[in-house]
Structure formats: C-alpha cells, structure tokens
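step: validate -> pass
step: tokenize input -> pass
step: predict -> running
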Amino acid sequence: MGQIITLLSDFGLSDSYVSVMKAVIAQINPAVVVIDITHQVPPQNIGSGRFSLMTAVPYFPPKTVHVAVVDPGVGGKRRAVGIGIGTPFGEPVGFLVGPDNGIFSGVLDQFPAYAVVELTNAQFWRTDEPSGTFHGRDIFAPVGAHLASGVPLAELGAAITPDSLVQFSLPPYFQTENTIHGCIQAIDHFGNLITNIPAIVLSHPWSVTIGITSILSALTYSDRRVGEFISFIGSHGWLEIAVNNGSAQTRLNSKIGDPVEVKLDRIGMS
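step: predict -> pass
step: emit ->
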C-alpha cells in the first residue's frame, strides 16, 4: 500500500465537499491512498471530532497523514497547523493537519508533538488566496498531499511551540476512595455515551450515576434486556453508557461534558 492520508470532517455526504478535497489530493499525488475516518461528525462539534480522530489514529501505519476539518472558526483568527507526532519513546507516528481549535488534543494526549508549524507557506496551498469558508480544499488537503509526497514539515510554515496548541476543554476524571468522577467525552451514532474514564481504573462490579439514573455494570449488551440501560467497557477502552437496542443520549438527554460518577467495590488502579 502507498502513502496514506486520512480525512475526517463534519461535511456529511450529501454535498460535494469531501470529493473536492479528494480531487485536490489526487491532482498533487494520485498515488496516495485516501481513507475516510468519518464525515458524519455533528456540525461544528469539535469534541466529537476529537474523539473520532483519537480512537482511529493508533490503527494506522507510521507516516500516515491525518487531515481533520471540523472548523467552526474557518476564516477567522484560529491558526492552521501541521503537527508531527510520535510515541513517548521517540518513534514517529505520523502527521496531523487542520485547524488549531482543540480537535487534535486527544491524539496529542497519546502521541506527543515533536514539531509543530503554522501553515503559512502558500507555496503548498491550492491557491494563495484561499476561500474564507473552505480551508479544507484550499489549505489542509493540499498540505496533506504534499506531506504525503515527502515535503518536510518544516517547509510548510513557521515553527511554533507544541504547548501553544489549543486544548479542547474537558474536565479530567479524578478518583476518591471508592468513587471515580468523570464526564461524557463523546456520543456515538447509536446514542451511546462515552465517558473519559479509562478501563484501567475500573474493576467489576460498579454502578454509574448520571443525573438521577443509576446503571449497573455488565460485560456486553446481551447481559441486559432490550430497552434496559447498561454500562460497560467499549471497544475503544473507555467506560460507556448505552441502552440495549436504544439511545442513551435520547433517554437521558445527555451532552458532551455532562458529569458522571462511578462507584465500585475496589479501585483498579490507585
């Protein structure tokens, strides 16, 4: 397989925006393999885009270029950035390209940035007069294609410090003696509520309280009858709240950032 570029956006699939980005990439390097992570991020929902990207990046081979465009600040003062990421041990992982609005903060919690540039070199844009509403076409897609074609990150713009990158505002989880406090960090297509509490701090049995609803732990959907609530460890490694054959979001009227509390008999990790 050739060099890979992934695309993630809130553009949906009913308009031509995604195909136009792919066409721009193909004009620069038709040999690049383009893989869609998702284009069904809820409009302007940076938190949802952050989670989708964070859970997808670890499965791609090294040197993959990830272009993410959930960009409610397009045309404004937010920076356009390119980021080189690696493991904590210094092994290269790939590149991130997109707006500096917090969408990359989940990935950067796993893979630190070893280099960051603001995308100021118009030589690698589609045009030096980009649209004020479609940087995905005019800046991010072409920059991603040039990165995938071997252009060094440093040539794409002016270096900036990694600690200046915008962080997505999400309260961290914390523990007391037998309770873990966290929040909803994402809501998936099925209405499942994905918390920011990782599996490593959990041990069966537990109960989750969200609002006035208390939900017991289980291993899988089949442990509960249709229509019943369930809390379990999702395939992504985070505590999840769901309804068997239903939507926990709809039943609980939940949103990203809502607090959750987990009570358990013993703490999986101190």
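step: describe -> Helices lie at 17-28, 46-56, 105-110, 135-148, 248-252.
step: cleanup -> pass
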